[in-house]
Amino acid sequence: MRGDSGNARRFVAVQLPWLAVDALRRREPSLAGQAIATWQAVGNRRVLVCVDAPHLHAKQALADAQAMLPDLVLRAADPPGEADLLQRLGHWALRFTPIVALDAPNGLILDVSGCTDLFGGERTMLAEVERCFGRAGYRARVAMAGNADAAAAMVRAGFSGVVVPVGGDLAAIGALPVAALRLPGEIATGLARLGLLTVGDVLRQPRAPLTRRFGRPLLDALDFASGARARPLTLVRPPPALLAVRAFLEPIVTRPAIDRAVDALLDELCATLEESGSGARRLSLLAFRVDGDVQEVALGIGSSSRDAAHLRRLFAEPLGTLQPDLGFERMILRATETNALQARQLIGSLGVAALAGEQQRMLSELIDRIGQRAVVWRVAATGSHWPEDSVAMVDPYATPEEPDVWEDRRRPVRLLPQPKELAVLAEVPDGPPARLRLDGRVHRIRHAAGPERLEPEWWGDKHDRPRRDYFRVETEEGSRLWVCRLGMDLPSAPARWFLHGVMN
């Protein structure tokens, strides 16, 4: 029998039974091949939600599952995150049809009416949908029918790759178990007690007694699955096109005209970015010449931006590479890479915030000039009092922190990356050095200040470091050194001395 539909309404149901597990495996490739499940608390019990493990099933008690399979990898379920993922997959599925709806918690409905011929027929399209989800890392069950609920019932019953012929929905769902209608548990249990195990069994019963006993939800489910009524669908709204287009009545040739056109494109694109809560990381300007030639100016931005004035400055130099010849008749500006860019709370004075924004713009322009592949970083203070951990190389766009643990103490202008061990003579065991040997020479100490004791940071991963005593010393030659003593907390071992920094 032919599955091709002509002008009939056709729907594809996509069920992702292992959505949460597949998403975890995509994020953590090391989980490939392992038994895994997500769980959530229901009252005072913990039960499995999404399961990909032998002999286990959803709604099973977590304790029982662990007893049966001790090596089971468990992760807490994240319903909001999974709902967001399903929404993103809905946007991704717009490649097949312009009408996609969510079938929460783990399904999608694709209205493919009139689209199947573009893929070579219904069966070919259905196979392509399943294959594309598989390549993306998500195992899917797919089915096609004349209404959305009939197709969804097929995949919920465990079928995949099924194309229900036009007009065959009622016959196809008749053999399915009533659980395929996704009825409330008490209704499914009540029907089973009456011996009504399949959808066909229920459809053959008089409607009035069913309504009195089970209420409206059962009749609604039957009407939707049989096609008697259409269920309202929650459509996925396609994301706004992040581009701006300008066509010119007369070809533009001069640089001022090109600048004005790009300014208008930037204003329009930045307004769209603001509406979508996004900022551009990469932009592409396509300039179409009257002779058919197309030229591109690509721009990379250090940090996400939708500031039109800032982007104009970045475009100023690259626009010089355009060769208009007889003129450009059309331009398209696209944001080819974007990140979320929400409004930020200003901290401190407005002047400080404005200065920070200006610094970011200057940094973006610098990186754009020297090339996106250049490695740029800045030195930032950290919250550690341990000398070698008190600063770090960070992303130049990282939000600067102001640690409150730094005290007003003198520190060396140069810290040695690898402290040098010293031979030291002290007048008393716990006193400052009197003489020290450095690079084969003995130096007498004229002045010494200290000790400044640094205890290990018990809250960090280096809590087992020995405590240190630091001294600032000045030799008779005038060198000012920062020396460190270790071992005072180990009476059985001799103290060891190191040169850690130079004060001048």
Automatic annotation (TrEMBL):
<keyword id="KW-0227">DNA damage</keyword>
<dbReference type="InterPro" id="IPR043502">
    <property type="entry name" value="DNA/RNA_pol_sf"/>
</dbReference>
<dbReference type="GO" id="GO:0006281">
    <property type="term" value="P:DNA repair"/>
</dbReference>
<protein>
    <submittedName>
        <fullName>DNA polymerase Y family protein</fullName>
    </submittedName>
</protein>
<dbReference type="InterPro" id="IPR050356">
    <property type="entry name" value="SulA_CellDiv_inhibitor"/>
</dbReference>
